[in-house]
Design a protein that fits this description.
heterodimer, A: alpha+beta, Alpha-Beta Plaits, four-stranded antiparallel beta sheet, 5 helices, 5 strands, 34% helix, elongated, B: alpha+beta, 2 domains, 6 strands
Chain lengths: 158, 152
């Protein structure tokens, strides 16, 4: 299923769908496949979960969502699933990942919070940390300062 | 100032964008406006950088191999090191964060060997060690959320 055409298709979609009347025809021309084939393939990629979401990707910072915090905890392995589920109950949590710990960085559970400003995000974080158990885990909050790069992944076509 | 149409386009089409021959005309029909109004509104949002694109969110490691990475850089070198890192097309996000570990970026490569090569090249060019935090488990991925656009 995952052929070269699909890979090229994703690379083109990663650059952004053209804003014109028949955008899938434009992409089809670039790939030498038909407009309906583009649509069929995108539907399939979405149904199979390779595309998680297809739509308008907003720039939160420009829209006034200037604060973005990466929050990290060190949670014992056996409690990770439970704590992750707890984090996901909060609507402002947009991402939640487990990542490996390193000697220089002793945290394994990550989540992202986007908010209009720092104080809003800190208030949201306080709600998360109001569960007493959360205070037993080592924790850090890393607010973003400058964004040096933000764009869709470029998939190497070789 | 954003128009009501633009606000609707920003909020209501972050997912399930029409996969039809004329997606913008379909959106227009849903919103009771013309296709041209939708195209115009989206072009403005794009030009003014309110949207990064209309496109696909692909979870990490679905295609290729990706990792979150971080380095600790002295403040006065941050901009030049960030620029060195950004020159690699494999880097798609790069943020300064409030921490001693202050530069965080995401890399995506075709396979593990390619990823290793890029990280080694970044270490050689910048002179700093790169810490790697590949995804071990994903609990959720959905960057769409309801925007409060009342004061925009």
């Amino acid at each position: 299923m995952f052929d070269v055409i699909n890979q090229q298709l994703l690379a083109h979609v990663a650059e952004g769908l053209p804003i014109c009347s028949r955008p899938y025809a434009v992409i089809g021309e670039r790939l030498n496949i038909s407009e309906t084939d583009v649509i069929k393939r995108l539907k399939h990629l979405q149904a199979s979960g390779i595309i998680k979401r297809f739509g308008v990707i907003v720039k939160h910072a420009v829209l006034g969502y200037r604060a973005n915090a990466m929050c990290v905890w060190h949670v014992p392995e056996e409690k990770i699933d439970e704590i992750a589920q707890y984090l996901l109950e909060f609507p402002f949590v947009t991402l939640c990942y487990q990542r490996p710990m390193l000697p220089e960085w002793h945290y394994n559970l990550y989540c992202m919070i986007h908010g209009k400003d720092k104080s809003t995000v800190l208030a949201q974080l306080a709600r998360i940390n109001s569960r007493p158990q959360m205070q037993t885990f080592p924790h850090q909050v890393l607010f973003s300062r400058r964004c040096f790069k933000q764009r869709g992944a470029i998939y190497n076509l070789n | 100032m954003l128009t009501n149409l633009q606000k609707k386009l920003l909020n209501d089409f972050q997912r399930d964008f029409p996969l039809s021959l004329t997606p913008y005309a379909d959106i227009a029909a849903q919103l009771n406006v013309t296709e041209n109004e939708v195209l115009q509104a989206l072009r403005e949002l794009n030009d003014q950088k309110f949207i990064s694109r209309i496109g696909a969110i692909i979870p990490p490691n679905q295609i290729g191999v990706s990792t979150l990475a971080a380095i600790s850089v002295p403040e006065n070198e941050l901009e030049s090191v960030a620029a060195q890192i950004n020159r690699f097309s494999e880097v798609n996000h790069n943020y300064e964060r409030e921490n001693a570990l202050n530069l965080w970026f995401v890399l995506i490569a075709t396979d593990a060997a390619h990823l290793n090569n890029v990280i080694r090249a970044i270490e050689n060019e910048t002179g700093y060690d790169v810490l790697r935090f590949p995804l071990e488990k994903e609990f959720f991925i959905d960057l769409s959320f309801q925007l409060d656009l009342t004061n925009v």
